[in-house]
Every structure is written in structure tokens, then in C-alpha cells.
Write a structure and sequence with these properties.
Thymidate_synth/dCMP_Mease_sf; alpha+beta; 10 strands; Thymidylate Synthase, Chain A; 11 helices; cytoplasm; nucleotide biosynthesis; transferase; EC 2.1.1.45
Length: 314
Amino acid sequence: MEQYLNLCRHIKDHGVMKEDRTGTGTKSLFGYQMRFDLAKGFPLLTTKKIAFRLVVSELLWFLKGDTNVKTLIEANNHIWDEWAFEKWVKSESYEGPDMTNFGIRAANDPAFKVIVDEQMKVFCSNIVSNDDFAKEFGDLGPVYGKQWRSWPGKNEQTIDQVQNLIEQIKKNPDSRRHIITAWNPAEVDDMALPPCHTFMQFYVVKGKLSCQLYQRSADVFLGVPFNIASYALLTHLIARECNLEVGEFVHTLGDAHIYLNHMEQVETQLKRTPKTLPTLLLSSEKASIFDFGLEDITIDGYDPHPRIKAPIAV
């Protein structure tokens, strides 16, 4: 994973200071590409521990076309909680302590973070136990799962981009139209968070499937390691269903940035030596990409350095 560490070094050494919508501030650069040979190991970061279970449950959430955090919370995956939580605390239904700019305030005020955590527990409990609450505040709008599986088409029909892609790869592997997009201009404003990983193209040559992802906005410390693992996993799953080997995952970044409150964590990570990449194991009992569950996707030989905590910018 030297490619990822080189990206961190490049931003640290050559990035420019930029403001951002969260008010946190970033060091940023525009236009960067990494390439990962998937035959040489599964690209799960080893210089800090990545919760692979969260990567898997999020990807399966996308593939099911789901857009409600209830499914994730029930799977003990809380990586989307903040955006749904924000919807609740800004609503007239919320009667708790003031949560204005809760992300930034919690990062700088330990006492306030305790209050936020208490309210987040209330929120998650309500999402799981109250269907009406989950329907109103758990849905994130037409985010990835909706666009991947139910893109709005003509005459109120929908387009299943993932299923269409698999069929196209099987029928015409040499096509240059093996594309899935999550960026729907007509629905971006209705999304809790406009898609950061926006556009992917698949490529078949010599019996191998490769994927290139264009990511418009890349949170390099927290988000990018998850994105690498997620799209590498997606490539493996699609390749398996199409009876292909895996080729490369090509990761192209637009605005690649390190949040200013992540710089210390990045420095810690850059002092660590990468370890051997793990191996991905997929159940042989599942015929379709849509049939996989958490228990069907595992890794072997993962021995990373310890986790490095950092606040998420909302």
C-alpha cells in the first residue's frame, strides 16, 4: 500500500490550504491516480487497522439498493450515522441540547462530545425500535444504492445499473460502455451527502476484470482506505459472477484532501512500515452478487498496525 502512503506524503508536501463546507479546513490537491494489482493481494490498508466488516456491510447495503441507515445500524455499522443524525437534530421533532455544528464542536470540546454521544445513542435506538422514526429520519435520500439499482428512467421505470453492467460484461466484454454512475444531477440536492465516489468504468482484457473509479472528493485519511477496499471488493464480486479473474483497481481522485485535524494522525501513519496484504475469501455457495451476506465475505492473513482514531467532518 505504498501508493496510498505516497499520496499522503504528496498532499503533505505539495497540497494547498483550502476552506471547505465543514469549516474544518483542508490541505488539498487536484488530480491524483493510484493503481492496485488485485492479484498481488487484497488492498486493505495495513499501516492502520481498517474494519473490513464495515466495508463489507456498506457495500452490501449499496448493492441491495438500500438508502436507510437502519439496515447499517442493525449490522452495527455506524459510518453513515452523522448525516442521518444531522437531519434529526435540525428538525422540529428534536427537543434535546443544541447540536449546531456538532461535528466540529465535539472534536474540540470533550464535554460536548459526551453530550453528542448521548444524543446519538438515543437516535440509533429510535431508528432500530421505531419504524416511523426510521422512515422519517433514517433515510438519506437517493444516495448510492438508489442510483446503482433504481436510477429513475423514462415512463416511471427504473434502471438497475449493476445488473445491466453484469449482463453487458458477460455478453460483450470488449465494450467501452461498462459504466455505473452515482452522480444524478436531478437528485443531488435531495441526497444527505452528494456522492463522493461518483463514476466507475470496468474493463476486460485477457480474461481479467479491472475497475477505474473517479472520486470527486476524497477524504484521504478516513474515507479513501475504505473506498479502496470497497471498490476492490466490488471488482472481485463482479469478476466472480462473470467468470473472470481480477485485474487492477485504478483509483482516480479529484479533490484529494487531508483535513487539518487529521494531520497528526497522518504523521503517525507515515512512520509505520506496511505489512503483507491479506487474501480475500468469497463463499463458493453464492451464485449471484446480490445473494452475498456478511458471513460470505472474509479476509485471511490480515495483521495491521493498530487503529488510529480521528474525528469525521460532517
